[in-house]
């Protein structure tokens, strides 16, 4: 029979956590019509047996897969098996306190399509995290925010604790990539409103962490794959094309103003640099970042001012690299200039992407 809420919990060697987890979930969800589906990757520590022993007393069941196929794919396989109007995902190791579940339900019952238990909104946090883990977690979020602009509205992208209306995942082509199924759902799922609910990520008390270097590498591959799927590399290519058109505008106008207009060449240069900045901006606004353009005259001029500042700083950067590589390192000046252009292009792209078309 269909339940109101289906919780999907991926497990790999979590036997010691199953009993306390099920009890705490049951207490937190008293009064709710719910079920838990554990998706286990053939744990050899008795995880499946413990779930089976609880099934007469609690609404729990288990799907056992052969081989260790990964966390994200466990959630995707679980999704095919559940029919709740709301679907929740959480870890088995009690780092995600079940007492937060009612707050997530309230958000998704309201107007949110996805509710995320978040460490990075006011009231959230992490118990006992060392400096390195904090840096990795924050760094991973910054990378996603930088390269995948639609994620910028979410503070805790790394959370594995969230809930959504079942329509969000219906028909969504979710790819089973690594650990971060939320990232996939945000990109491929059908949603409008996202809410974040603060929670404290507790320290793992029982069992062992499965998070290692290979999951971090998988994360970077995942970001890369999403950038490819969502055509972010094409955006960069368009930005470079616009930049090349700006060189044409700059050179053409410099010649015209100096040779035909009779202006001193430095005056012509100043006019042509600013003109090419304006044509570059306009083309980028319509051609490179049409999805990130906010309507309104004020917004247009704010973006133009920001683009101007970034471009002038980029020019400074180009000159600095040119001077450094030529005069300090001793490189041939045309090669130094190529390096300067590459650095300035990257600077212009990333800062504009992050700030101008935020
Ligand atoms: N089915 C399945 N579950 C997995 C797999 N890897 C991890 N899990 C489960 O996914 C959840 C999160 O894994 P953890 O090892 O706790 O990862 P983490 O919470 O990011 O890292 P820690 O803070 O170090 O615990 C736990 O419930 C694990 O049992 C896997 O390959 N398959
Ligand atoms: Mg954990």
Describe the overall structure.
There is one protein chain. The protein is an alpha/beta fold and 358 residues long. Helix 5 packs parallel to helix 7 and helix 8 packs antiparallel against helix 9 (265-288). Strand 2, helix 2 (47-54) and strand 3 (60-64) form a beta-alpha-beta unit. The protein contains eleven helices and nine strands. The radius of gyration is 26 Å and the shape is elongated. The strands form two sheets. The protein has a seven-stranded mixed β-sheet with strand order 3-2-1-4-7-5-8. A two-stranded parallel ribbon has the order 6-9. The mean pLDDT is 94. The chain binds guanosine-5'-triphosphate (GTP) and magnesium ion. Guanosine-5'-triphosphate (GTP) binds at residues 10-12, 14, 39-41, 68, 70-71, 74, 91-93, 95, 160, 204, 209-211.
């Amino acid at each position: 029979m269909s339940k109101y809420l289906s919780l999907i919990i991926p497990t790999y060697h979590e036997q010691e956590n199953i009993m306390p987890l099920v009890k705490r979930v049951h207490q937190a969800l008293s009064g709710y019509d719910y079920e838990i589906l554990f998706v286990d990757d053939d744990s050899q520590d008795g995880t499946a047996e413990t779930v089976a022993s609880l099934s007469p007393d609690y609404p729990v069941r288990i799907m056992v897969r052969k081989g260790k196929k990964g966390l994200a794919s466990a959630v995707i396989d679980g999704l095919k098996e559940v029919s709740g109007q709301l679907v929740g995902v959480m870890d088995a190791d009690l780092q995600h306190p079940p007492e937060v579940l009612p707050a997530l339900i309230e958000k998704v019952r309201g107007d949110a399509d996805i509710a995320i238990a978040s460490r990075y909104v006011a009231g959230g946090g992490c118990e006992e995290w060392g400096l390195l883990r904090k840096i990795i977690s924050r760094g991973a979020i910054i990378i996603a925010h930088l390269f995948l602009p639609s994620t910028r509205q979410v503070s805790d992208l790394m959370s594995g604790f969230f809930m959504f209306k079942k329509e969000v995942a219906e028909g969504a082509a979710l790819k089973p990539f690594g650990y971060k199924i939320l990232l996939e759902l945000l990109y491929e799922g059908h949603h409008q409103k996202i809410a974040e609910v603060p929670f404290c990520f507790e320290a793992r008390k029982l069992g062992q962490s499965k998070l290692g270097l290979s999951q971090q590498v998988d994360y970077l591959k995942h970001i890369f794959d999403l950038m490819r799927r969502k055509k972010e590399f094409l955006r960069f290519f368009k930005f470079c094309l616009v930049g090349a058109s700006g060189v044409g505008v700059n050179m053409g106008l410099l010649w015209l103003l100096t040779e035909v207009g009779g202006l001193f060449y430095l005056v012509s240069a100043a006019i042509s640099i600013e003109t090419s900045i304006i044509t570059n901006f306009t083309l980028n606004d319509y051609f490179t970042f049409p999805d990130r353009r906010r309507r309104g005259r004020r917004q247009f001029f704010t973006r133009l001012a920001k683009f101007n500042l970034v471009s002038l700083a980029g020019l400074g950067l180009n000159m600095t690299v040119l001077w450094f590589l030529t005069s300090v390192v001793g490189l041939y000046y045309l090669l130094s200039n190529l390096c300067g252009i590459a650095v300035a292009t990257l600077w212009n792209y990333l800062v504009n992407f992050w700030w101008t078309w935020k």
